[in-house]
Amino acid sequence: MNKKILALMICAIVATSFVGVSSVSAANTNLDGCKITRISRLPTTLNCELTTVDGSSYCLYDDKDCGMCCLLNGIYNITDWVFVILMAVSSLMIIWGAVLFTTSQGDPDKVTAARRLILFAAVGIAVALFSRAVPPAVKMIIGV
């Protein structure tokens, strides 16, 4: 059971990494840049010149700060998805652990399994909360 949960969490993280990083793929454009999902998250110290196409904002790679803007935007997207998925899975694990506790009828094996499940859920919540600290740490490392 533990290997299945770990495999599910790893698959969720890998899947979100592919969803999180966004590149320009608008059908009618030949832009070389990345799509910025939330402009308000980018630091004001970066001069990201954005181009609007079909209601979406794109940062073109010929701008000197575009690489940093795209990097931070991708990191924010990845950590948002990791946070949401881990919190959802951890919440379900806590609920299932509570069900196991209430239906264990004093069986030590079932109680141990329920405690272990809730412990893994707590670790998942800690990792999810840690994912919120990654973008500010990257900002500090790159100096923006």
Write the layout of secondary structure elements.
Layout: H1 2-20, E1 33-36, E2 50-53, E3 56-60, H2 66-103, H3 108-131, H4 134-142
Antiparallel strand pairs: 1-3, 2-3
Helix pairs in contact: 1-2, 2-3, 2-4
Characteristic terms for this protein:
single chain; 144 residues; mainly alpha; 9% strand; elongated
Describe this structure in words.
The chain is mostly helical. Helices cover 62% and strands 9% of the residues. A hairpin with a 2-residue loop joins strand 2 and strand 3. It is elongated, with a radius of gyration of 20 Å.
What's the rounded overall pLDDT mean?
Answer: 81
The amount of helix comes to 55-70%
Tell me the number of structural domains: 1
Spatial separation of the terminal alpha carbons: 43 Å
Number of helices: 4
Shape: elongated
Strands of the widest sheet, in order across it, are 1-3-2
**pLDDT < 50 stretches:** 19-28
* Multimeric status of the protein: single chain
The ordered string of helix (H) and strand (E) elements is HEEEHHH
